[in-house]
Specification:
The structure holds two protein chains of two kinds. Chain A is α+β, with helices and mostly antiparallel strands. Chain A is 28% helix and 24% strand. In chain A, the strands form six sheets. Chain A has a nine-stranded antiparallel beta sheet with strand order 14-20-19-18-17-16-15-24-23. In chain A, strands 6-5-4-7 form a four-stranded antiparallel beta sheet, with no helix packed on it. In chain A, a hairpin with a 6-residue loop joins strand 8 and strand 9. Chain B has three helices and six strands, in the order ααββαββββ. In chain B, strands 2-1-6-5-4-3 form a six-stranded mixed beta sheet. In chain B, strand 3 and strand 4 form a beta hairpin. Classes of the chains: A alpha+beta, B alpha+beta. At the A-B interface, strand 14, helix 6, strand 20, helix 11 and helix 12 of A face strand 2 and helix 3 of B. The structure holds FE2/S2 (inorganic) cluster and fe (ii) ion. The site of FE2/S2 (inorganic) cluster has 9 residues of chain A, from loops.
Chain lengths: 421, 164
C-alpha cells in the first residue's frame, strides 16, 4: 500500500514534478483511476453486428469489445482462462468463437468457455462454467459511447459523467439522425510522456497561440483567436475531473451557421438542409454552436470533430489514439471532417505533432529536480460561477488543470485534507 | 497499372530521381523538394488496416493533395513547426527500385525505403515500401504520387513531422 502523501504534492495553485515521473505513482494511478473508475473503451458502431469484435484497452491492458449473439456489448479480457495466452490477435473482426492458439480452448463472444480439446482429462477437476474470459465487471454506454469499470460497485456511468453528458448530446445533435459513428479507423500516436501531460493539454487554452502559431500563420485559421486574450470563449470545470473549453460565446458572436467548422452553409448545402429538416427552428442554434471541446476524465477527449483516447502504457509512455467522428446521415460533412482530421492530427498532423513535441519536452524537463513544482495558478483570482453553478474562467486560464488535479486527488487519496479542494 | 505499357522513363533515370528526392528530403531542402511535385500530386502514408485501401473513408497518417503539400512546406518554413525545430537528423536508403508499369501515362516505380531519424526523443527507424508515379513535364521528371506503406503502420507511431 502506498506511503505517498498525495495531499502534499497537489496544491491549489501548483503540482509537484514527481507526479509525472514516479513509477509507483503511475502504478497506483492504474489501480485507483484506470482499474476503478469509468474509463472510455469504444463505440457501439465499432461492433455493429453480432459476433463483431474489436481489440481495445484499459490502460496498458488489452480488452476485447464484443457484440455477442444476443446483441449485448461485452468487455472481455484478452487472456485465456487456461494459461493466460492472448485469445485474440487480430485487431478486429467477426467470429463465432475465440480460439486460443496454445491448447485450443474456445470462448463464445460473450466470454463463456465453450470447450477444450481432450476434455476427459479435466473431468471432475474443473467446472467449465467457472472458467470464462475475464470480464470487465461493469459496462455501460451513453449515446453509443461504451465505458467500462473494473469496480463491481460504485457510481453509475451517469453519475460519473454528470453534466459532461451534455458534450455527448451536443456532438450527436450535429448529425441529422442524432447519432455519430466511429468508423474511420484509428491513428495511433506514440508519445514519450506521462499520460497526464496529454490530459492537461487537451483543455489547456493557454498554449494554442504559441504551439500552433505556425499553422495559424500558414492555414489562415481562425482557431487561434478563440484562445486569445480578447476571446469571449470560456473554460469550465464540469465536475468529476471533466473539463471543457466552451467556444460557443465566440461562435454566437459570429452568428454564422457552420462558422465553428470554418466554413459557410452554402459549402455543405445538403447537410444544412438535412439538419433543418431534422431539427426545424432549433437547427440554427446547433449549426452556430457547433461541436464541443471536452475532456472526459480520465481518457476521452471530444475535440470538435475528432475523438482522442489516451492510453497510458507506463509512467513516461503513452499512446494517443485518434479518429474522425462520422455523423449518421451527414455524408457531406464526413468527407470534409475526415480530410481536416488527416491534416491536423496524428503523427504527421499539422497541429498535433507539435503538441506531442511539447508533451515530450515537458517530460524531459520535469526530470530536472528544480524548481520542483509546476504552476497552475493562471486565472485563480478571476474564477467565476456560471448560471449552472460551474466554475468558469477566461479561455486561457489554468482553471481546467486545477479541476483535473482536484479530482485526481480525491481518487488517489480519498482521505486528503483537501488543501486543493 | 498494367505493367505492360511502354513509358519513356528508364530505370536508371527513375533511380536518379528517387535518390535526389530522398537527398532533398533528408537535407530539409523544402523548396527544391516541393518543386519535384506535379500540380495534381498526392502524398500518402496510410495508417494501416483499411486505411491502405481507402483514404476517403479511413484516417491516414498523411494524405496531402498538392495544396496541402504546399501548406505543409510553408509551415515547416515558419521556423515554428516545433516538431521540426530543431530539424530531425535524417539519412535514408532507397533501394530495390523497380519499374512496375504505367498509370494513366505516368511511370509507376516501386522501391524500399529505410530511414534513420535522430531527435532528442531518440533514434527512430522508419522502413516502408514506396510507390511513386513519375511523369515528364517540360523535359524534367516530376512525381505525381508518392505512397509509403510503413512496416509499422498497424502500430503506434512516433511523431513523423519530417518529409518522409
Ligand atoms: S493457454 Fe489458452 S488454451 Fe492453454
Ligand atoms: Fe494543442
Amino acid at each position: 500500500m502506498t506511503v505517498t502523501n498525495y495531499d502534499a504534492l497537489v496544491r491549489p495553485d501548483r503540482v509537484h514534478g514527481s507526479l509525472y515521473t514516479d513509477p509507483e505513482i503511475f502504478a497506483e494511478e492504474m489501480e485507483r483511476i484506470f482499474y476503478r473508475t469509468w474509463v472510455y473503451v469504444g463505440h457501439v458502431s465499432e461492433v455493429p453486428q453480432p459476433n463483431d469484435y474489436v481489440v481495445k484497452s484499459i490502460g496498458p491492458q488489452s480488452v476485447i469489445m464484443t457484440r455477442d449473439r444476443a446483441g449485448k456489448v461485452n468487455l472481455l479480457q484478452n487472456r485465456c482462462a487456461h494459461r493466460a495466452n492472448l485469445v485474440c490477435d487480430a485487431p478486429r473482426g467477426n467470429t463465432r468463437a475465440f480460439r486460443c492458439q496454445y491448447h485450443g480452448w474456445t470462448y463464445d463472444s460473450d466470454g463463456a468457455l465453450l470447450g477444450m480439446p481432450y476434455k476427459q482429462g479435466y473431468d471432475g477437476v474443473i467446472e467449465k462454467s467457472e472458467l470464462g474470459l475475464g470480464r470487465v465487471p461493469r459496462v455501460a454506454e451513453y449515446r453509443g459511447f461504451v465505458f467500462g469499470s473494473f469496480a463491481a460497485d460504485g457510481p453509475s456511468l451517469l453519475e460519473h459523467l454528470g453534466s459532461a453528458t451534455d458534450a455527448f448530446d451536443r456532438l450527436c445533435r450535429l448529425s441529422p439522425a442524432g447519432e455519430v459513428a466511429v468508423s474511420a479507423g484509428w491513428l495511433q500516436h506514440r508519445v514519450a510522456a506521462n499520460w497526464k501531460m496529454l490530459l492537461e493539454n487537451e483543455t489547456d487554452g493557454y498554449h494554442p497561440q504559441f504551439v500552433h502559431s505556425s499553422v495559424f500563420q500558414v492555414a489562415n485559421s481562425a482557431i487561434g483567436a478563440l484562445y486569445g486574450e480578447s476571446s469571449t470563449a470560456v473554460c469550465r470545470d464540469l465536475g468529476g475531473g471533466h473539463t471543457e473549453n466552451d467556444l460557443r460565446p465566440e461562435f454566437r458572436r459570429l452568428g454564422v451557421p457552420m462558422g465553428w467548422f470554418g466554413t459557410t452553409a452554402d459549402k455543405v448545402p445538403n447537410y444544412v438542409a438535412r439538419m433543418r429538416q431534422s431539427y426545424g427552428a432549433g437547427a440554427e442554434e446547433i449549426l452556430i454552436d457547433g461541436s464541443p471541446h471536452v475532456m472526459i476524465f480520465p481518457n476521452l477527449f471530444i475535440a470538435e470533430i475528432q475523438l482522442f483516447v489516451i492510453q497510458p502504457l507506463s509512467v513516461n509512455q503513452t499512446v494517443q489514439h485518434v479518429t474522425c467522428v462520422q455523423l449518421a446521415e451527414g455524408e457531406e460533412m464526413n468527407r470534409r471532417m475526415l480530410q481536416q482530421t488527416i491534416g491536423s492530427v496524428g503523427p504527421a498532423g499539422l497541429l498535433l505533432a507539435d503538441d506531442t513535441e511539447m508533451y515530450e519536452r515537458n517530460q524531459r524537463g520535469v526530470a530536472s529536480r528544480l524548481p520542483e513544482w509546476l504552476v497552475l495558478a493562471r486565472g485563480l483570482k478571476r474564477e467565476r460561477i456560471d448560471a449552472d453553478g460551474h466554475t468558469i474562467g477566461n479561455n486561457t486560464d489554468e482553471l481546467t488543470l486545477r479541476a483535473i488535479w482536484r479530482h485526481w486527488l480525491t481518487l488517489m487519496d480519498p482521505m486528503a485534507e483537501g488543501t486543493a479542494a | 497499372m498494367t505493367g505492360t505499357t511502354i513509358t519513356d522513363i528508364e530505370l536508371g533515370e527513375a533511380e536518379q530521381f528517387l535518390y535526389r528526392e530522398a537527398r532533398l528530403a533528408d537535407a530539409h531542402d523544402y523548396d527544391a523538394w516541393e518543386a519535384l511535385w506535379t500540380d495534381d500530386a498526392v502524398y500518402w502514408v496510410p495508417a494501416g488496416g483499411e486505411s491502405a485501401t481507402d483514404p476517403t473513408t479511413q484516417v491516414s497518417v498523411l494524405f496531402d493533395n498538392r495544396s496541402r503539400i504546399g501548406t505543409r512546406i510553408r509551415q515547416l518554413k515558419t521556423g515554428k513547426r516545433h516538431s521540426q525545430s530543431p530539424n530531425s537528423s535524417l539519412c535514408r536508403l532507397i533501394t530495390n527500385v523497380e519499374l512496375l508499369g504505367d498509370h494513366d501515362g505516368d511511370t509507376v516505380v516501386g522501391a524500399a525505403m529505410l530511414a534513420v531519424e535522430s531527435r532528442d526523443r531518440g533514434t527512430t527507424i522508419w522502413a516502408g515500401r514506396c510507390e511513386y508515379r513519375l511523369r515528364r513535364v517540360d523535359g524534367e521528371l516530376r512525381m505525381s504520387w508518392k505512397k509509403i506503406l510503413l512496416v509499422d503502420r498497424d502500430r503506434a507511431l512516433n511523431t513523423m513531422s519530417f518529409l518522409i
